[in-house]
């Protein structure tokens, strides 16, 4: 949240209404027109937003240029193996070998093979050597691949589950697999959004009443927040017209829009009240608030949007789509703040104050001023324990492991999760653990030798495909597939291992280490996980460099200093490291019961990068406010070491109430995300809450004043050669 006011010419007659309104925007000059237009757009956006959930994708986690993606494309095009799995478990009282289960399984297979949306189909009854019967013999499995992209496949899965799932004639058919999991994630995210909004909006309104001491004043940011939510859903709909958009964007973007709209509204209200307390009449006070606060809102929006642009450095559609949606939502929040909020203030005027505002008490009497002075008297004694806390909290991040989301991100009661648990626990072969190999340029005899060597590897149950069926180094069956039109052969290396486990990764490495008779492309979930991690590793330095460089330049233009931007980057990185450490400790290592999620031993690969970019932008939002206040006080002073301490103490004291209110409200909004039943969304919500609270407490109250006390007048150091350039380019208060 920013509270800076950009330097402008001295105000013309304080009591002149015209001077207070001229040049301050259409929202102030024509408030009723603005609100009428906003009402019409609210209805239209609501209608568009209602169409969004069915257009979102639960996928997008893969690098489209990665080896595993290439293998998946060849398998789908040349071998009929669609990339999205749909699984059916078939249970009957007399077991999988009984006539009831066989009849049900063959009926499902026939129906799937007759459906154009389905690729290859295998089952315990039509493919007896495929290992699709549970160890206890009670359950048979049907495995099908669904054609189309992630969004199309999940809709197909929903229809097929309705056709074949359920219980009839004593036979129970349950559905699972990636396609069903994606559909359930989509439905869960939509349901969770309604719950989160139902919690966050009323609670933030009550907190706004408490912070602003007026229900009328609280209604302004609350209304801006509701407009942001509805407008965000419409923005997401428009984005789906041009690119794939992740279902996670529904929760993340709406929460971000709500938080920023309330945040920026508080800025304008706070500035308006400040001018009223100084004795300006309504029109002049509003004009000053909109001119200065409006520029502050734009500057803050640029900071947050710049961080979100960093998500475009990653190859995954999941991250890229949220980056695009986030930038659009930030722009929407700024637009609402610069139009609707001034219009409401213009009409409500002094009624937003329950009673006339009194002149503010001396800043030296505030609690934050006294706390800051206490920290400045013993900077090392205060800073070292705070740093120790952040470093200790961040230590678990050294054990960070990433993986792709599967059915286990859903509650244990979800259908796909239950089916996934049964397969992982009850079958000798894990359909999700199969390593798929696309081999080109190999003769049939050498291909068979290669398949035999693969089947002899530890933890390999069987190798099937174009070369035949091989178990423990020996051929046991005829080929289960042919050679593609491009000359490629397919080998499926089956295993009972979890592809996300250490054993699964070791098995993948062993498969890749076997000398091949031709060119090999590797696919399957284990390879997809490795490719995703590699894609993130390639994109992260670019995103980090972009965010660090642009943030440093913007903060340097604001402060006229080289040290202050560096300080901001280091402290924000420390608080984010502590946040990441907490996520690993809870969601990967399983402490605190994983906050009621299933602990899989890894964090969803894209969550840390998403959290980094979003939280970094939000933390810089607060940083701008603080640095702007510090710089304002510093430039008014004699510029001694004592003046540094006073500038920091006054800046923190004057920003305290507004920043604290904004931090608490943001935490409440993001806590709404943390109520999600989808583990990845819950982890992101918890991470954002921690990041906001750490930044507003440990960093802002302790580390910032301590570090700036130690740096003294060097805080505003700038090489002499750069001073003329900085004076011309600088954004001044």
What's the structural blueprint in terms of helices and strands?
Blueprint: H1 17-21, H2 26-29, H3 31-49, H4 67-79, E1 84-91, H5 99-113, E2 118-123, E3 139-146, H6 150-164, E4 166-168, E5 171-176, H7 178-212, H8 215-240, H9 248-277, H10 282-309, H11 317-348, H12 367-377, H13 379-394, E6 402-403, H14 415-426, E7 435-440, H15 444-455, E8 462-465, E9 469-471, E10 474-477, E11 488-494, H16 502-513, E12 519-523, H17 525-559, H18 563-588, E13 603-604, H19 607-636, H20 641-673, H21 679-711, H22 723-729
Parallel strand pairs: 6-13
Antiparallel strand pairs: 1-3, 1-5, 2-3, 4-5, 7-11, 7-12, 8-11, 9-10
Structure explained in plain terms:
The longest helix has 35 residues, at 178-212. The chain is elongated. Helix content is 61%, strand content 9%. The chain has helices at residues 17-21, 26-29, 31-49, 67-79, 99-113, 150-164, 178-212, 215-240, 248-277, 282-309, 317-348, 367-377, 379-394, 415-426, 444-455, 502-513, 525-559, 563-588, 607-636, 641-673, 679-711, 723-729; strands at residues 84-91, 118-123, 139-146, 166-168, 171-176, 402-403, 435-440, 462-465, 469-471, 474-477, 488-494, 519-523, 603-604. It contains 22 helices and 13 strands. It is α+β, with helices and mostly antiparallel strands. 56% of the residues are buried. Mean pLDDT is 84; it is low at 1-23.
């Amino acid at each position: 949240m920013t509270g800076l006011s950009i330097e402008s010419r001295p105000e013309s007659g304080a009591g002149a209404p015209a001077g207070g309104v001229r040049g301050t925007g259409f929202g102030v000059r024509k408030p009723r027109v603005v609100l009428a237009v906003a009402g019409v757009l609210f209805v239209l956006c609501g209608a568009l937003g209602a169409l969004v959930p069915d257009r979102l994708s639960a996928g997008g986690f893969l690098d489209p240029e990665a080896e595993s993606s290439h293998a998946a494309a060849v398998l789908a095009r040349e071998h009929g193996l669609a990339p999205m799995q749909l699984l059916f478990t078939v249970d009957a009282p007399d077991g999988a070998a009984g006539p009831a289960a066989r009849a049900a399984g063959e009926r499902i297979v026939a129906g799937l093979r007759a459906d154009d949306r389905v690729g290859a189909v295998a089952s315990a009854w039509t493919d007896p050597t495929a290992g699709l019967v549970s160890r206890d013999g009670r359950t048979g499995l049907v495995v099908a691949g669904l054609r189309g992209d992630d969004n199309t496949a999940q809709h197909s899965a929903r229809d097929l589950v309705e056709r074949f799932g359920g219980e009839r004639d004593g036979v129970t058919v349950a559905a699972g697999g990636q396609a069903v999991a994606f559909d359930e994630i989509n439905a869960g995210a939509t349901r969770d959004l309604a719950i989160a909004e139902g919690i966050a909006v009323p609670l933030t309104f009550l907190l706004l009443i408490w912070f602003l001491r007026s229900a009328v004043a609280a209604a302004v940011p609350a209304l801006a927040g509701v407009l942001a939510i509805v407008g965000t859903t419409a923005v997401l709909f428009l984005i789906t017209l041009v690119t794939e958009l992740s279902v996670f964007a529904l929760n993340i973007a709406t929460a971000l829009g709500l938080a920023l709209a309330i945040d920026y509204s508080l800025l304008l209200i706070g500035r308006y009240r400040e001018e009223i307390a100084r004795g300006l009449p309504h029109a002049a006070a509003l004009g000053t608030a909109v001119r200065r606060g409006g520029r502050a809102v734009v500057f803050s929006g640029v900071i947050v949007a710049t961080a979100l642009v960093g998500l475009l450095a990653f190859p995954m559609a999941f991250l890229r789509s949220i980056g695009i949606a986030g930038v659009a939502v930030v722009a929407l929040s700024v637009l609402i703040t610069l139009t609707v909020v001034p219009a409401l203030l213009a009409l409500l005027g002094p009624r937003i104050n329950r009673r006339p505002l009194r002149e503010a008490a001396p800043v030296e009497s505030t609690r934050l001023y006294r706390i800051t002075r206490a920290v400045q008297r013993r900077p090392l004694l205060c800073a070292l324990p705070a740093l120790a806390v952040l470093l200790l909290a961040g230590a678990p991040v050294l054990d960070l492991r990433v993986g792709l989301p599967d059915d286990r991100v859903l509650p244990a009661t979800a259908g796909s999760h239950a089916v996934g648990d049964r397969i992982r626990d009850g079958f000798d072969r894990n359909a999700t653990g199969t390593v798929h190999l696309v081999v080109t340029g190999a003769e049939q005899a050498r291909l068979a030798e290669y398949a035999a060597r693969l089947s002899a590897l530890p933890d390999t149950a069987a190798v099937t495909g174009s070369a035949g069926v091989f178990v423990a180094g020996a051929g046991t069956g005829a080929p289960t597939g042919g050679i593609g039109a491009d000359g490629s052969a397919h080998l499926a290396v089956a295993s009972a291992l979890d592809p996300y486990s250490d054993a699964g990764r070791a098995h993948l490495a062993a498969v890749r280490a076997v000398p091949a008779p031709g060119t090999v492309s590797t696919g399957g979930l284990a390879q997809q996980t490795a490719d995703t991690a590699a894609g993130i590793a390639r994109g992260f330095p670019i995103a980090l460099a972009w965010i660090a460089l642009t943030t440093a330049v913007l903060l340097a233009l604001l402060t006229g200093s080289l040290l202050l931007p560096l300080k901001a980057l280091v402290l924000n990185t420390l608080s984010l490291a502590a946040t990441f450490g907490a996520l690993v400790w809870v969601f990967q290592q399983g402490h605190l019961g994983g906050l009621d999620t299933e602990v899989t031993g890894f964090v969803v690969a894209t969550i840390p990068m998403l959290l980094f970019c979003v939280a970094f932008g939000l933390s810089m939002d607060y940083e701008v406010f603080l640095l702007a206040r510090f710089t304002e006080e510093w430039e008014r002073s004699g510029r001694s070491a004592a003046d540094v301490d006073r500038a920091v103490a006054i800046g923190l004291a004057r920003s305290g109430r507004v920043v604290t209110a904004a931090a608490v409200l943001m935490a409440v909004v993001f806590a709404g995300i943390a109520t999600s039943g989808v583990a990845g969304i819950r982890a992101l919500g918890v991470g954002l809450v921690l990041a906001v609270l750490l930044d507003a407490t440990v960093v802002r109250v302790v580390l910032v004043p301590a570090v700036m006390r130690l740096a003294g007048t060097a805080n505003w150091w700038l090489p002499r050669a750069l001073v003329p350039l900085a004076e011309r380019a600088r954004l001044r208060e």
